[in-house]
Amino acid sequence: MKKFAAVFLGRPMALVGLAVFAAIVATALAAPLLFARGPFTIVGMPLLPPGAPGLLAGSDVLGRDMLVGLAYGARISLLVGITSTLGAVGIGVLLGAVAGYYGGVTDDLLMRVTEFFQIIPSFVLLMVLVAFLQPSLNSTVIGIALISWPQVARVVRGEFLSLRGREFVQAARTLGMRDAAIIFTQILPNALPPIMVVSSMMVGSAILTESALSFLGLGDPNLLSWGSMIGGSRSAMWVAWWTTVLPGLSIMVTVLALNFIGDGLNDALNPRRGR
Amino acid sequence: MSRLHFIAMRLVKTALVVFAVVLLSFLLIRLAPGDAATVMAGQSGYADEAFMKSLRAEYGLDKPLPAQLATYLGTVARGDLGTSYVRRQPVLDIILERLPNTLLLDAFALVVAIAGGVWLGAAAARRPGSAGDASVTVLSMLFYAVPQFWLGMMAVLVFSVWLAWLPPFGIETMGADYTGLARAGDIAKHMVLPGMTLALYYLASYARLTRTAMIEVADQDFVKTARAKGIRESQVARRHILRNALIPLVTFAGLQASILVGGSVLVENVFSWPGIGTLAYEAVTARDNPLLLGIFIVTAVLVSLFNLVTDIAYSIADPRVEMGR
User: Fold this and answer.
1) Does A199 contact chain B (CB < 8 Å)?
2) pLDDT digits over B150-167, tens only?
3) Is the pLDDT of residue B103 over 90?
4) What is the 3-state secondary structure of B148-203?
5) Interface of B with A in 287-306 (CB under 8 A)
């Protein structure tokens, strides 16, 4: 653990990522306190440039404060990014663990299913899922989790394949432990480092996917997110660059921060797999 | 195992994937609230119980699930993907009309991405650790963090709004009625921005992959042998290292195909490119479920066919491939 902290904290990029991410989380948490009137309130004339009186980031097509929208948008991005990753990790760990632990036909079958989900165009499948379930926060999270788990399943399966023959697993089996107990209390804790690396990277890609969905108008219609801000600004982009540029930059900075953290975790947790 | 056997196995696998796609679509239809009878009754603006019942009987919706699945499989196998709610045309016809535009855009992006990526990656691998090498790494890091549709909008802002170099929307100039070469040139001009937006993201991945593969191959014995024989360094790089480093790119192109399709849905919408991506958006806004599902089936089948082709190409390019899998 000490070594892990030393390596992780020794990476300037990882530290920058962590600091930026912490600031974004703080903004997301503080948004309702700072801007109690909410992101949909009209505060002035539409398309006022950044720096207009009282409008640090300008106003959008409908005259809403961009800054408030950006702060509330962080909530949606983080919420969707984290919960859908948790869902994907849940499915991926379960299927990957079963495939890697039992091997044989079970493994073959589960890996074919995993491959299938990697071959088909997952974003189109996501559009179908969300459209059929009706666009909402729930359907976004469920949809993203359902298309993202294969990556986790592959990593977990690989770890389980290499760990299942180790002495401590044989010892647990000799003691008469049930399979489920061996999988979750013996092998899984040892397979955690690569799972953490994959999931930290997945939060970023889930945020990108959410922004794409809400850009296409498939996000929750009652919530303002960075993607829907960009989608809503398409007609104004020609005259008011900030309506498009600022939410996009917010997404980029958030995802970059998460990727830096992921790279740092990778270096600290997988010293064998240096890049 | 012979190559023929390998190809036969891959054909069976592709057939299974296509079957699974149709099965998944059947399940997805169940997911949407209401059934086809509700929708049709809603459209006719007339719905009492008896009418709904007769509709359900007519379309077999009152039969048990396995029987319904069999009916569905039969219709899809005949190329019938249903009728668009909104346009009242067969879904397949609508999709096939738009498909060539998407294939043109995706093929352009794929070629630019592979050619540019290999070139950049090879240049970076020549001198690992140089400024050029570092900039490839930084660029790919940025592209991984940027929403592709937003990158496209930024391209419009810079190259169409500020510099006014390139047309921002559509596939050709409306009302210009160009023919022959002039028309091709017009389309090519319209394709630059969406094509490059789509390509840049994959270009970064191909550059990284080529770079890694070339550095790995450069360490192998046959490269040392080539150098020992006195072959010029530029020849070694091109003939011996690059050729062998390119083989994994074939598989990668197959794996990327599904992501390319997702990317082109978004990019088409940014640039109003009249392909199946904009069609998918129209289907979403009009709540045209059969059309949306049809697009899923068609793109999934195309991607699995593309994977079949890349797998076969790989087995030809690299005779060492384990054909058992």
Assistant:
1) no
2) 999 998 888 887 887 877
3) yes
4) HHHHHHHHHHHHHHHCCCCCCCCCCCCCCCCCHHHHHHHHHHHHHHHHHHHHHHHH
5) 287, 289, 292-293, 295-296, 299-300, 303-304
